[in-house]
Design goal:
The chain has about 525 residues and is of the alpha/beta class. The protein contains 8 helices and 30 strands.
C-alpha cells in the first residue's frame, strides 16, 4: 500500500505548482473558492484516534480467517475502533464541514487504510474540509457443520449478514457522535457532518438517513446476544444523523424506508454492477470462497436505480451519476486498492462531481439590496448566511462589510459584485447593474429642510417642510416604482398598503427633488 500511496503523491506533485498558484490566489480573494477545488498545499494527519470500543467477533475459523468468517457470534472481544483525521495544513478556519469516509469490502474485508479512502481524505482536506477515514466492525458469524471434527460445510445466512451490517451501522453512528463531542478540538461545524461511503460504506451511509425508526430495524439485530439499539456504541448525547450523504455503488434494504426524508444525497453506480446490483438483486452474489461447501447467502438489496426511482416518485431532490455498462467500484480500484498504475479516469470525475455536490450544500445563497441617493449607494448583504462580505463597486474600487456605503464620482451604470462567505468560509458571488446619480436639469435644485416622520412607521408619514404641491413616488430598494401620488399637498401619506420593508420616497416638483428612506413596519 505504501508503494501505491507514493505513486499517488508523485501524481499530485506534478500539479503542485498549479495547486499552489490556486492557493495563493484564494488567499487574496480570487477564484476558485475553498471547498470547490484544492486550495491547500497539503493536509495534516492525526492517526489512530480511538472513537469507541465495541465487541468484535472472536471465534475465528482457520480455513475462513482470510474472509473474517467466524463460528457463530457467541464469543466476542472488546476492542477499540479507530479513525484517522485529516485537516488542511495551516488552516485558520475553526468552523469546518467534515466528511467521514467509509470503506468497501462487503462487511467482510477492508480497513480505514484502503487506498481510495486515504486518497479521498487527503484530496478533500486540501479543499478545506476536515476528513476522517474510519474502521468499523467487519466479519460475519456462520453456522458450521463438522464430521469427526472436520468442517464439511458452513453457511452465512441473511441473519448473519444483517447483524454484520447492523454492527457496522452502530459504529458509523458512533463516529459522528465522537466528532460532535470533539468538534472544538478538530475545528468542526457540527451542523455539516457528511457521510461518504463506497460499497459497504455506501450501504451504511444510505441507511444512516433512511433506517431511522426502531420499528424499521430487523428482528435479527435482537435475537440471542442482542446487539442493542443503534446508538449503544460510543459516546451518547449527540445526534448521529448525517447532514448529507455520498453513496458510491450502494443499496438500501427496501425503498419503503425512504418515506419523506429530504436530506441531500448523491448516488454513483455502474449499471452492470454484479457485487451490489444497480437494481434489485442478491448482495455479494459474485463473491467466490474457494471452498465449495461454504455458502454465502445474503439478502437482496435495492440498488441506486431503485432508490432513485423511489425518490423521484416522492418528488425528493437528489443527484445521480449512473454509468452504462460499468461494474463495481468503477473508478478503478479493487476492494478499495489502487492497481499499480493508479485509478482510472472515473476517479477524477467522481471527485469533482461529489465535490460540487457538497459545495452546493455548504455555500451561502448570495444576494444583496441597493439603496441609491444621488451618487451615494448603500449596499446591504442579504445572503442566506451573513458572515463576511467583499464588494467590487465596478469603478475600480472595493470595500468590505455586510452594510457598506459607497460614493461614486459620476453618474452611470456600474456592475457591482458581492463575494459573500459564511462562517465556514464557503463563498459565492453575485453581480448586479447599479444606476447611480440623478439627472439634474439646469433649473433644478434639491429640496432643503424636508423630512418625513414618524420613521419607521406602520400607518402613515407626514412630510414636513413641503411648501407646495409635489409628486410623491415610492420605490423599493431595487429601484422599482411601487406607487405614485400627483399633486400631493399637506396631510398624511398613508402607507398601510405597503409590505414590510425599506423604501425610497421621492418628493419632486418642477424645480426641486429629494429622495428619503422610509422604513415600513408591521
Amino acid at each position: 500500500m505504501a508503494t501505491i500511496l507514493n505513486q499517488y503523491n508523485r501524481l499530485f506533485q506534478k500539479t503542485l505548482i498549479f495547486n499552489l498558484f490556486i492557493f495563493l490566489n484564494f488567499e487574496i480573494g480570487a477564484q476558485p473558492f475553498r471547498y470547490s477545488a484544492i486550495v491547500f498545499e497539503k493536509s495534516d494527519t492525526l492517526k489512530n484516534v480511538e472513537y469507541a470500543k465495541a465487541p468484535w467477533l472472536n471465534n475465528p475459523i482457520a480455513l475462513l480467517s482470510e474472509y473474517n468468517i467466524y463460528e457463530g457470534e457467541a464469543k466476542t472481544e472488546l476492542r477499540p475502533l479507530y479513525m484517522d483525521i485529516f485537516t488542511p495544513s495551516g488552516d485558520s478556519v475553526i468552523q469546518r464541514p467534515t466528511i467521514i469516509f467509509m470503506h468497501s469490502g462487503g462487511f467482510l474485508l477492508g480497513t480505514r487504510h484502503n487506498d481510495d479512502m486515504l486518497a479521498l481524505c487527503d484530496s478533500f482536506a486540501r479543499r478545506g474540509y476536515v476528513t476522517a477515514t474510519i474502521d468499523y466492525r467487519i466479519g460475519m458469524g456462520a453456522t458450521i457443520n463438522r464430521f469427526f471434527g472436520l468442517i464439511i460445510g458452513a453457511k452465512v445466512d441473511e441473519v448473519n449478514g444483517y447483524r454484520s451490517f447492523y454492527r457496522a451501522m452502530q459504529d458509523s453512528r458512533a463516529a459522528i457522535r465522537f466528532l460532535k463531542l470533539n468538534a472544538e478540538n478538530y475545528g468542526i461545524d457540527t451542523t455539516k457532518i457528511f457521510l461518504y461511503g463506497s460499497s459497504a460504506g455506501a450501504i451504511l451511509s444510505i441507511h444512516n438517513l433512511y433506517l431511522d425508526k426502531p420499528a424499521e430495524i430487523d428482528s435479527a439485530a435482537f435475537i440471542s446476544h442482542s446487539l442493542g439499539n443503534p446508538d449503544t456504541i460510543g459516546v451518547s448525547g449527540f445526534g448521529a444523523k448525517a447532514n448529507a450523504v455520498v453513496a458510491l455503488w450502494g443499496s438500501l434494504q427496501k425503498p419503503e424506508l425512504i418515506e419523506n426524508e429530504t436530506t441531500s444525497v448523491f448516488f454513483a453506480h455502474g449499471t452492470a454492477d454484479d457485487v451490489v446490483p444497480f437494481r434489485k438483486g442478491k448482495l455479494l452474489g459474485n463473491i467466490e470462497i474457494p471452498i465449495s461447501t461454504i455458502k454465502l447467502e445474503l439478502p437482496d438489496g435495492y440498488g441506486s436505480f431503485c432508490i432513485d426511482t423511489a425518490l423521484q416518485n416522492r418528488g425528493i431532490p437528489h443527484q445521480t451519476y449512473f454509468v452504462e455498462g460499468k461494474k463495481h467500484e468503477f473508478y478503478g480500484v479493487d476492494t478499495g486498492e489502487f492497481p499499480e498504475d493508479g485509478p482510472n479516469a472515473y476517479w477524477d470525475t467522481i471527485i469533482w462531481k461529489t465535490s460540487d455536490f457538497l459545495f452546493d450544500i455548504i455555500q451561502p445563497n448570495v444576494d444583496f439590496q441597493i439603496e441609491n441617493q444621488n451618487l451615494t449607494s448603500i449596499f446591504t448583504n442579504t445572503s442566506s448566511e451573513i458572515y463576511s462580505a467583499r464588494w467590487d463597486f465596478g469603478d475600480n474600487t472595493t470595500g468590505t462589510g455586510n452594510i457598506t456605503e459607497h460614493v461614486y464620482t459620476k453618474s452611470g451604470n456600474y456592475k457591482v459584485t458581492l463575494t459573500a462567505c459564511n462562517k465556514n468560509m464557503a463563498c459565492d458571488t453575485i453581480s448586479k447593474m447599479v444606476e447611480t446619480g440623478n439627472k439634474v436639469f439646469a433649473d433644478e435644485i434639491l429640496f432643503s429642510g424636508i423630512r418625513i416622520f414618524p420613521n419607521p412607521t406602520s400607518d402613515f408619514v407626514v412630510i414636513e417642510g413641503l411648501t407646495d404641491n409635489a409628486q410623491i413616488s415610492i420605490f423599493n430598494l431595487h429601484g422599482k416604482l411601487i406607487e405614485m401620488r400627483e399633486n400631493f399637498g399637506n396631510g398624511p401619506l398613508h402607507i398601510q398598503q405597503l409590505e414590510t420593508g425599506v423604501y425610497l420616497v421621492e418628493i419632486k416638483n418642477r424645480q426641486q427633488k429629494i429622495r428619503l428612506k422610509l422604513v415600513k413596519t408591521r
